[in-house]
Amino acid sequence: MNNCLGFIGGSGLYELDFLENIKLLELSSPWGNPSDKIIEGLINDNKIYFLSRHGKGHKISPAGINYQANIDCLKQCGVTDIISLSAVGSLKENLNPGTFVIVDQFIDRTIKRKKSFFNEGIVAHVPMAEPTSKELMLLSKNNLDFLKINNVIGGTYLAMEGPQFSTKAESNLYKTWGCDVIGMTNMPEAKLAREAEIRYCSISMVTDYDCWHPKHESVTLEMVISTMKENTSRSKEFIKKISQEYYKGIDFSKDKTKNILDTSIITHHESWNKEIEKKLNTILKRYKKVNI
User: What is the dihedral of CA 144, 150, 154, 160, to 10 degrees?
Assistant: First the structure.
């Protein structure tokens, strides 16, 4: 199977106007519709896919995003690797606004979202100890350095429900947990990508200090938007550059994500719910060809 790169853009990143041969794909899934049309286009003759997480114009709140449909539809496109770009608040003094954090861990504090493709009828337990791809992280680091974009590799992302920002008590609590950044969207996105056997990398772009910092005012939307515009411009340069480097070839041989369902599905095949199996057709396609 050929590798294929997809991007999910968060707040401030709604389209990629620099792509060539752009097609707008209006896809649907058994889980519903994705956040927006998926953009297919070329960078140096290499095909990439892009999905706006909140939809063009930012119409969908973090809790209202259909994460299952987003991942399923990217899987339908043949995407094997996702780079997620998100606006986040900083929980560390040294992670100032404008810093790009290449996240490697998550704490999931969301409460209302559908977090699995395997809720009933077919049960799977995918490992999440290392939720992001080391190879994609290193590739991201190298390209951010090349572009002279301030970045840090490694960090814990606290996923909160939203859409409200944190209270000061919450912000200080998450700091004591050792979290680095706080956002609203990477969960359950990363979990669903793993279940879909798609490698995942999170680039978290700091817009503010949340509300814990004694020398900075409480986070406001105006503050976030100002920094977000600068981050969006940098993120587009990053997408151009990393797309070129990705298709030069990466050794993913040590990453088990592409075959993770081989050791994760616990329900015996003869006990599979047929309707659920049909619903999971895109997610299970490779697994069924190899194992059934």
Answer: -110
- Residue 234 CB partners (closer than 8 Å, separation 6+): 100, 147, 149, 205
Half-sphere exposure of 122 (CA within 13 A, CB side): 22
Within 10 angstroms of residue 266's Cβ, the number of other Cβ atoms is: 10
Name the band, by pLDDT with cuts 50, 70 and 90, for residue 213.
confident
Active-site residue list: 208, 210
Beta strand segments in the chain, E:
5-9, 20-25, 38-43, 46-52, 81-90, 100-103, 105-108, 151-153, 156-159, 181-183, 199-208
Contact 179/107 with Cβ under 8 angstroms?
A: yes
- Helix extents (H) in 79-129: none
- Prior bond to 97 cis, omega within 30? no
236-282 per-position pLDDT tens digit: 999 999 999 999 999 999 999 999 999 999 999 999 999 999 999 99
Closest CA relative to residue 70, chosen from 195, 181, 161: 195
The pLDDT of residue 215 is 67
pLDDT tops 90 at residue 74: yes
Q: Which residues pair with 48 in a beta bridge?
A: 5, 41
The one-letter code for the residue type at 214 is P
R_g of the chain, CA atoms, integer Å: 19
Q: Scanning the structure block, which residue is given the tokens 């899987």?
A: 75
pTM assigned to the model: 0.95
In this structure, what token pair is assigned to residue 50? 């892009």
pLDDT in tens, 106-157: 999 999 999 999 999 999 999 999 999 999 999 999 999 999 999 999 999 9
CA distances from 9 to 1, 111, 130, 248, 250 (A): 25, 22, 22, 23, 23
d(CA 276, CA 60): 27
What span, in angstroms and rounded, lies between the C-alpha atoms of 152 and 226? 21
